[in-house]
Amino acid sequence: MHTIEHQLSQEPTRRLSNLATSIIIIALLLWSVTAFNLSNLSENGLTIAKNIFKGIFNPDLSLLFSITKQGVPYLLVETMAIAFLGTIVGAILAIPLAFLSASTIVPKPIAFIVRLFLIVVRTIPAIVYGLMFVRVVGLGPFAGVLTMSLTSIGMLSKLYVDVIEDLDTSILESMESIGCTTFEKIRYGIFPQLSALFISIMIYRFDMNLRDAAILGLVGAGGIGAPLIFAMNAYKWSEVGAILIGLIVLILLVEFISNKIRTQIVRG
Amino acid sequence: MNFNVLAKRHITLQNGKVVVMKRSTTPLIILIGLILIYFSVQITGFNMEAIIKRIDQFFVILKEMMQPNFSYTTKLWQPLFDTIKMSLLGSILGAIVAVPIAFCASSNIIKNRFIVISSKFFLSLLRTLPTLIVALMATFIFGLGTMAGFIAIFLFTIAYVGKLLYEQIENADMKAYEAMHSMGLTTVQSFRYAILPQVLPNYLSTTLFCFEGNVRYASILGYVGAGGIGLLLNENLGWRNYANVGMILVMLIVTVFIIETISEHFRKKLM
């Protein structure tokens, strides 16, 4: 017993740092608590809340299963097409940028500048790109594709870089020693190491793009977002319910499938 | 990937041994990819010509953004702080509320399958709802302003932190927990003294990471009227006042960068 008590007394006292952390967190909480105000609560807020729930649990079934261009299935396919094409274009554009920002391949200053550029690209919200592209190519899903491509680049190249910097270079050295050309070194030494992980990253990003594509309709860039917003602004909650159910089912399904494929790919 | 339907090639070696070589699935995957690309191009109306013709417009807008209007800064502080407040409050409260829900969703602590499955389903449902849509719904109920943004971020944080936390709890070392249980401590007590110390560093790190992401999200929530800097972003984009947009983006990037640096510093310490 004595030894245990002795050991216990040797534990460093963190009272001061704990106190400081608590004070900082409480101060931040108090500072931010002004964001919580119910003064704007509209008097019929509760009625609207009730209507929302009623609508979501009684979805407009004819909309949910109609196969016209206004029906939920077609809109979901359109959203998926936007996300898919955006991911592919972004994934291809991200490859050169990833190599340029890998500090093991290019000189440090260049890598730093490209990295800074990528941070800037990543921080600008997708909606801003969306609005810019709507001005460039007009309303419609095509603007959505361009937006998705641009927003994917930032995260994709960041994840690519981690893979590239982990490349096993001893393979390249041994290939050089047996007289392989540069092309052969890339094809048989680098490509097989990168392809599986790159594809896994792409599928992950597709999963994320699908969620983003769903809100791009807000700025008129195609997909399921626009009908959703229109239905909401018109207080047609049963239509909102139908669209949301379709969207949730699709996202859960895609997430499930993409997780399955990714574990398969990474395990080999 | 394993396609058993594909024929395998048999190669007979010189010593008479037969070696089976699996046919590569790469051509098949590429073919499927190309078909999907073709249909996506059809559906989205992908138009290379339009890009080439009109892409200069994009750079015109970009160039205007590159000359930010610095005199606009004075009007930006309040919305910027609103954005940070929204995400801070949402992240802290969301992370706290996530703990009991994650506790209920951990199959190794709660033995009642119904509670576990319904909590897990609740979390994935919350996670799937796009934050912007939740914010829009919240503006209908709570009116325009930071409250709606706070609700959206709060719900997203519960879903995100909750999911990662229950995965942590399910992977935790159960020996100490079982020992405490056998000594007569209640489930909550043994959770507090055996599981919590194991998952705490990761939980804090996840919360910080979530907060980083939330600041980014919060900046666009104003777009649907949920308070913060997004409101001004929306207005200025509507008025095509790109110099002001540029200024907002500069402030946003700097803020996100500072918050990310601080949070990364603490996350490295937690590891």
TrEMBL record, chain A:
It is a multi-pass membrane protein. The keyword Transmembrane helix applies. The chain crosses the membrane at residues 16-36, 80-100, 112-132, 186-206, 213-234, 240-258. Its main location: membrane. GO terms for molecular function: ABC-type phosphonate transporter activity. It is found in: Cell membrane. The keyword Nuclease does not apply. Residues 76-258 form the ABC transmembrane type-1 domain. Pfam families: BPD_transp_1. One of its GO terms (cellular component) is plasma membrane. Keywords: Cell membrane, Membrane, Transmembrane, Transmembrane helix, Transport. Gene3D superfamilies: MetI-like. CDD domains: TM_PBP2 (cd06261). It comes from the Bacteria. Belongs to the binding-protein-dependent transport system permease family. PANTHER family: ABC TRANSPORT SYSTEM PERMEASE PROTEIN P69, PHOSPHONATES TRANSPORT SYSTEM PERMEASE PROTEIN. This is Phosphonate ABC transporter, permease protein PhnE. It comes from Lysinibacillus alkalisoli.
Automatic annotation (TrEMBL), chain B:
The chain crosses the membrane at residues 28-48, 86-109, 121-142, 215-233, 245-263. Residues 80-263 form the ABC transmembrane type-1 domain. One of its GO terms (molecular function) is ABC-type phosphonate transporter activity. Keywords: Cell membrane, Membrane, Transmembrane, Transmembrane helix, Transport. It is found in: Cell membrane. Its main location: membrane. InterPro entries: MetI-like, MetI-like_sf, PhnE/PtxC. It is a multi-pass membrane protein. GO terms for cellular component: plasma membrane. It holds the Pfam family BPD_transp_1. It comes from the Bacteria. Belongs to the binding-protein-dependent transport system permease family. This is Phosphonate ABC transporter, permease protein PhnE. It comes from Lysinibacillus alkalisoli. The lineage of its organism: Bacteria, Bacillati, Bacillota, Bacilli, Bacillales. The gene is phnB.
